[in-house]
Specification:
Blueprint (H helix, E strand, L loop, with lengths): L2 H8 L3 H17 L4 E5 L2 E6 L2 E8 L4 E5 L11 E2 L6 E5 L7 H13 L19
Antiparallel strand pairs: 1-2, 2-3, 3-4, 4-6, 5-6
Length: about 130
């Protein structure tokens, strides 16, 4: 576990810490090849420098975000923002379905839009995988 991510998780309230710990353990386990770090103050996992998954504490929940999630075609994820991201929010640890999470992580590995170069391309996303 990246010590910065553990510090982030440890700074959360009891239930949110449990959610964050489950998410980080599952993401680390499934995307073992991914680089992970605190990016824009939140835990994020990268494949070849491209952000693919991360989570953040919101006012009333913990949001799990997949940068290319709109392309996953999954009913359990909600569109987020004007690009290709999708999210799910958790208020209790028992809301996390590990089977769904693993399926989404597999899709995060295999379906990617090029966020790494979005600034260079002036906001235009191209599909990598």
């Amino acid at each position: 576990m990246n010590p910065e991510i553990q510090t982030y998780n440890d700074s959360q309230s009891n239930e949110d810490k449990i959610i964050c710990d489950i998410l980080s353990q599952e993401i680390n386990s499934f995307l073992h090849e991914a680089e992970n770090k605190i990016w824009h103050r939140h835990p994020v996992w990268f494949l070849d420098g491209n952000p693919v998954a991360g989570y953040s504490k919101l006012k009333d929940s913990v949001r799990l975000l997949f940068w290319s999630g709109q392309s996953f075609e999954e009913n359990g994820l909600q569109n987020e923002g004007s690009f290709k991201a999708a999210e799910i929010r958790f208020t209790k640890a028992d809301q996390i379905n590990v089977d769904d999470l693993k399926r989404w992580l597999e899709k995060a590995r295999n379906i990617q839009w090029d966020y790494k170069n979005i600034v260079k391309r002036k906001g235009v996303l191209i599909r990598l995988k």
